[in-house]
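Workshop exercise sheet. Pairs work together: one partner reads the sequence aloud, the other fills in the structure field after running the prediction. Swap roles for the next sheet.
Pair: D.N. / O.F.
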Amino acid sequence: MKNILKSLYRFTLKRLLRLLGFEREFSFALTLAYAYAYDFKRYYSWSKTREVRLSQTKLTGEIYEVAHAIEKGLALRGTRVGFGHEKVNYLISLITSYKKLGCKPDVTITMALEVLEEYISFNKQNNQQFSAEEEAIAQIRNSHSFAMITKDREEKNNKASDNACIRFGGTKMLFKNAILEDIKGQFPTLVKARHSVRMFSEECVDQRKIESAIRLAQYTPSSCNRQTWRVRTYSDKNKISQILEIQKGARGFIEEVPCLMLITVELQFWDSVNERYQAYVDGGMFAMTLVHALTYEGLATCCLNLSLEPKRDRSLRNLTKVAPSEIFIMIIAAGNYLDTFSVTVSHRRSLNELMMISDLTR
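Structure field:
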């Protein structure tokens, strides 16, 4: 059937469209529709809209989302007593499903329990009791398979300094003077120093700098703190060349690149039509933070886009073994600076071209 349709298009419809002058537009629309259909299938198949309790990854995403909704409520100036009661019970049920699925206790459950415990504590302080929920949380915390969560947290806190109690969920207090002290670095200078560099030193890239930059990028904001980013690093020249040949945006300097980072986002953390593009937003924010962090570490970078048509998308997945549940965000080429090198001027447009002030008070 597929071949019949192709033949019909090639020998009949295509000729008619050519005669009418619509061949190029129709071909573009067809290609675009296929690309969207390709993306639709992946999102529908892998997002956590479906069968959320049957996958550890999907459950993790749901737990983070629900827990974050609760801790956001706890962080408000005037937190309402008893808020989010339904979400609390839902979160408890998710933790139970996590356990039933055979998942081992991890930081996801530690975070969720700490959010729940702070919720109970806050309401107790305001004379609101949730005895059933408190008992359910205690049973989870005290159960044999989850006992290591409490032990692990206590051990970490014992090793920490007196003023550095390690927490994974809930809220914490910050101080204006401390924040102002922390941001005294020259961020504008760093941002302006970043350029897309396409020539690199032959000196090996220090892996510790890559790891340090990724650690910094982990502080990027993400929707409901889901942190769905993934970074694959490559230093093998042959593999880098193969990846960039598929990407097609590094021709002329493929052999220059000593280190490559492939950024993806896991779709299993997302659901609903409202979040169909949120993975790209979160992934882009993470990528930008990572680029600045690499610059801070003294590494030159070049950002390479990964909006691929289906054929190249499949080729890159086959080469890099990226799971079908992940989407490509971008590639970052990185390396050490040469003593002298050229970059494009890349003039920036006037602020008036991009900034629009909407004064709603008038």
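Discussion prompt: The first helix runs from residue 2 to 20. What would you look at next?
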